[in-house]
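Example record

The entry below shows one chain as it appears in the dataset: sequence first, then structure tokens.
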Amino acid sequence: MQQNHESTCIDRRQMLATTVAAGAGALLWPGHGEANTVAEHPWIDAHSHIWTRDIEKFPLAKGQTLDDLSPPSFTTEELVEVARANGVGRVVLIQHGPYHGWDNSYVIHAARAFPKAFRVVAMVDHYSQSPGQQMRRMLDDRVTGFRIRSSERDRDWLGGNMGEMWRTAADTGQNICGLINPEFIAPLDAMCQKHPETPVVIDHFARIGMSGAIEGSQIDELCRLARHKRVTVKLSAFYALGRKEPPYLDLVPMIRRLLDAFGVERLMWASDSPYQLQGKNNYAASIALIRDRLDFISESDRDWLLRKTAERVFFFV
């Protein structure tokens, strides 16, 4: 999923880096006229990754090199540029496991620099000792969620000290954010039953439609999670689902099903950048599906999908 745009972004990155240096938080949230900034860039992107080629300051995970980065760069500044151009003023940054492993330094660095603009979904090793203590410490760094991943290779992906993580999240309000395939909805459902007070976020429609076929039975299973009142779903990664190209209208029936099951207050739009920025797909097409093409929802509903749900779920500190 590589997009070779590094050379075209160098000048923009240098220019934006100068802006960043001028004052933390100034790029997305000027120190003055904050209300006007919200009015001009009201939306929240509930899911984007970032990474940098400055691997001396932010080392890559073991075995990863600069050649593995695809696209070669997607820094805070590059994200800000594309987000603001589409009315997005706040973003939830998602730790990229393959590139950075358990080292959350870069996303936390971004949230410290832009405390009003960013919240973080970090990663902790559920096989480590006392992951709950790590979670509590990170709350001060605006880490309001923790990513877990289903795995064919690790059938014990909900084992180890995962229970401690879920209990901690129930206490702190931090979200357990599941990157899962449809076949792993059932075990996640069981965890939700065991930990009913834990806030849970499902990424990318639970990846229903990655094969190209959007299976009704899988949507049924995802919708059954709605009985757990702390579960929220991201409407995201349109580039990877169904026909995998704009305007993504083939995803609308699935969105309607989820609206009926969860309601707008438990659904939120997200781009999954930079992966949304490839081929025919782009950031503008992603947000346009929710902002412009769902003619059966009200303006109030749209505000929930594009702002208020993510604000409630992730921007509580």
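Notes for this example: The chain has one domain: 6-314. Confidence is low (pLDDT under 50) at residues 1-27, 29-36.
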